[in-house]
Amino acid sequence: MIHTKSALIPSQSPAANPAANPLFSCKANHTGRSPVLLFSRMHQSSLLAKLDYSVLQQCMHCGMCLPSCPTYDETKRERNSPRGRISLMRAVADGDLTASRAFAEEMYYCLGCLACETACPAGVDYGSLFETARAEVERTGAAATPQRTFWRWLTLRHLFLKPRLLRALGTALRIYQKSGLQFVVRKSGLLRFLPLSLRALEPQTPTIAPRFSHELIAEVERGFAIRPSASAEPPPSQNKEPGETNSLPPQTPAHRRVALLTGCVQDLTFPHINRDTADVLLANGCEVFTPPVQPCCGSLHAHNGDLESARTLARRQLDLFPVGELHAIITNAGGCGSHLKKYGHLLADDPAYAARAHDWDAKVKDIHEYLVENGCRPPGAGCGETSVTYHESCHLCHGQKITAQPRQLLKLIPGLTLTELPESSWCCGSAGIYNITQPEQSAKLLARKLTNLATTQAPVVATSNPGCHLQLQNGLTAHPGHPCQTVTQPVTLLARAYRAEMAAAEARLDR
Amino acid sequence: MNAPLLEALRDALGPEHVLTEPEDLIPYSFDGTAALHQLPGAVVFPADTEQTAACVRLAHAAGITVVPRGSGTGLSGGSLPLAGCLVIVLVRMDRILETDPANLTLHAQCGVVTKTIDDTAALHGLFYPPDPGSMKISTIGGNVAENSGGLRGLKYGVTRDYVMGLRVVLPDGTVTFLGNKCVKDVAGYSMKDLFIGSEGTLGIITEVLLKLLPRPAARRTLLALYDSMEQAAATVSAIIAAHIIPCTLEFLDQMTLRCVEDYAKIGLPTDCQALLLMETDGHPAAVEDEANRMMEIARAHGAREVRMAADEAEATRLATARRSAFSALARMRPTTILEDVTVPRSELSKLVAFIAATAKRHQLLVGTFGHMGDGNLHPTFLTNERDHDEMHRVELALSEIVDETLRLGGTITGEHGVGLAKKAFLPRQLDGGSLTLLHTIKKALDPAGLFNPGKIFD
């Protein structure tokens, strides 16, 4: 039996996150909260204790997960491994350990990449354990600092809960970037007045796209048509409010009706990838339904210990989409997709939504998965690239077990050679907001990814998650001599190929 | 643990390599063995033999018990901590020191991962055959200390057959190298052999000198499916009788098969009663001939279907799936109690039948798999450690299986070691003279009884 008498003493282990960012991380100063109070709150209703104990017991600590874990690989400390973390969660559930600051640090040092789930022969649901453990950290306040609480309040409870507010911020940021103000600020040295943590992040600020998804994609589209440039597309009509979109015009029998999820980061920074996704679906005979204002899927919240907001957002999604009328609900972001497919689990205790959430899970399809499942039409022209390599988003390959399909799609494109990337499923360090919360470990993983990318000599890398996309882009921008200089996505290459095919057909007609 | 000792350990290793906080210790309170937990007093990470010896000397002076540990994947509790002990984790010592293609040897630190040993050998066209199920993460030092087996035991033997030398830290802190690169060496007692399989009770192995073989040029992997266990056993007997020594003759029962397929999803059939995974390697012509003869023998003994792996990738997938068998069985119930009984090959089908009958009599769920070629079986009880009544029935069943194993001329453990999990059974197997000899050796090397005391025997 485990006997932990000194469980209230916070650990000072140097192994974990030595340079964590105080904005979100829990590595900042102690709050001075009474350990006794903390302990009693803990035992009122520890989320880990309430969890079905067999989920924790499922781990038989065989160690098969160890070589798959990027943080264990870095430190070789059991605490930084999946089975080590599960043992800590179990100790909390058993009441042998409080959700201490050291426990909190450990739960946030984990990338949540789920590589351990792929490696685990025993079928441990690490994702659920990890989300519950982080929720427990937030419930007990084990990681709380005023600064961290503010940033969590601003992002989780406001920006990513209110899509219009997020777009308003995006618009403001776009003006700041486009007007030349950003350039001026960067040159002026004004950034020196920012806290060190923010200053380190500033160069990573993604460039906001000139138009967002709803300005590129009409609410209902049918039939593939060529658009000279995605961003030149006039904004389609949009009169409906979310919630009103539950009834759609009658479906054309020839078209499969699918809904397209546009995401948050994807919407602000890569809306053209949403346009590309719509085009690929249209080119494959789908009718695409894209509500202009969509809530965040809630994965950010679930992965960061705010399961309550995640449930709120899941309910909003369920209210927005007429699940029964759709052949599929398409997501093109690995991280979102992994979470979107688990609404049934998330809302299992909600009688009003549980059944719908269950139906929803069956309809959510990653774009690559959907195309391969329904037979993707090979494009009749190339995409303008000849050589590509593929980096797997963790939550696409480990979370959703989708590995072959993106490669199959890339191989469909005429004239394009796919070179395998060594360690293609090893996390790039983006891991949601990990690059913000744990910049040092994130940078190590990015460096490893860039080294592997260089060995392929491919000039283009394709991936399928906005976080990975940004991380790779930032890494490659910082290394101008790197043989790979372009980050793109399989759907983008596929959409380009279809457009080239159509352009060639139109040119023939013109002649 | 007392403050001066911790201070001295921090001075010797650097403070970051000495762990004492509960959040750091709890993850070291178990190894790969089910249902055993014990919190250590401190966990340290020496960088080399000298630092390891320094830790041992300090613990010795303080009278603190020492438990060495590699990756903690052992299945008999060998690296399970003792209350308040010093756990010495050896994973930082992970360098290959030399590969010698002229003498077919490889010299490595103890913390090198087993698979890395074979991968390194492969770079020189060489081969390190022992392949325990956990080879992707187990350390070579731990393999030697437990004398690990694997899937290739029938043809290639076990870890002991590949150890030519060891560097060992003795319980008093003395460092010595036992053995050399010579194929023949009869100078004195074969001391290295004393430490192989000693389960951390006699010393800490910090370096290993291993024998390598030329890498086989070809291999063929076969799957044979049966509607009865007896047919599979008869096939194995007939293959051996035909003077074929395959490198692998693995067996999985239906329960194991279902769990493995559920995990690996490689298209294994789940409706047959027994599956044989067979592999032959060597010269391409011989391999082709043996594979064909094995297929014929399997069909002649009632195999419902015999398949040959199309390529190397499929063969690797099959072997990897087999290696996951034990962990995959954990899908069924919260606790998996794994046994390692071994009998002479000719007695194997009797033991398999006995295990099935025993499980049924005690109303227990069991999955059995193992190395049919070398008589080593892994009956795995699927239970729940919180269900005390069922756990009691598991204990009764295990005890009966052990008795039957010994009656058939077998051993309580073929490759996992005695540790804590099988300690109670050891006196049933060894006679008084053998037990006295064990105690005599232990007392001679570790008179203070500080090295992993209470493991193997009391």
Give a structural overview.
The complex is a heterodimer of chains A (511) and B (458). Chain A has 511 residues and is an alpha/beta fold. Chain A has helices at 35-44, 47-50, 53-57, 70-75, 82-93, 101-109, 115-119, 126-140, 146-159, 163-178, 181-188, 196-201, 213-216, 265-269, 271-283, 299-303, 307-320, 334-340, 343-346, 354-363, 367-373, 394-397, 404-412, 434-437, 439-456, 466-477, 490-510; strands at residues 220-222, 256-260, 286-289, 328-331, 364-366, 387-390, 417-419, 460-462, 486-488. Chain B contains 16 helices and 18 strands. Chain B has helices spanning 3-13, 22-25, 49-62, 114-123, 140-146, 153-156, 191-195, 229-241, 254-264, 284-300, 312-323, 325-329, 348-361, 388-407, 426-429, 432-445; strands spanning 18-19, 42-44, 66-69, 86-89, 96-100, 105-109, 126-127, 163-169, 175-179, 204-211, 213-214, 218-226, 248-253, 274-282, 305-308, 335-338, 365-371, 376-383. In chain B, the strands form 4 sheets. Chain B has a 7-stranded antiparallel sheet, with helices on both faces. A 5-stranded antiparallel sheet of chain B has the order 5-6-10-8-9. In chain B, a hairpin with a 4-residue loop joins strand 17 (365-371) and strand 18 (376-383). In chain B, helix 1 (3-13) packs antiparallel against helix 3, helix 8 crosses helix 10 (284-300) and helix 13 (348-361) runs antiparallel to helix 14 (388-407). Chain B is globular. The chains are: A alpha/beta (511), B alpha+beta (458). The interface between A and B is large, with 45 and 45 residues.
Number of helices of chain A: 27
Record the strand order, biggest sheet of chain A: 1-3-2-4-5
The average pLDDT of chain A is: 86
The biggest sheet of chain A amounts to:
5 strands, mixed
How many individual β-strands of chain A? 9
Gross geometry of chain B: globular
Main sheet characteristics of chain B: 7 strands, antiparallel
Q: Work out the strand percent of chain B.
A: 15-25%
